[in-house]
Amino acid sequence: MTKLHIKKAENATVRNDMHGFTLIEMLVVLIILSILVAIAIPSYRQYAVRNAENEVQAKMLQLEIELERWRAKSLTYQGFQPRIINSSNNTVTYGYADSPATNKTIYVPDGSDASNYRYKITLVDGDTPANSLVNTAVNATGRTWKMIAEPEDSGITTYASRMMMNSAGLRCKNTSKSTFDETNADCDTGQEEW
Question: All domains of the chain, ordered by start, with CATH?
Answer without folding.
Answer: 22-193 (3.30.700)
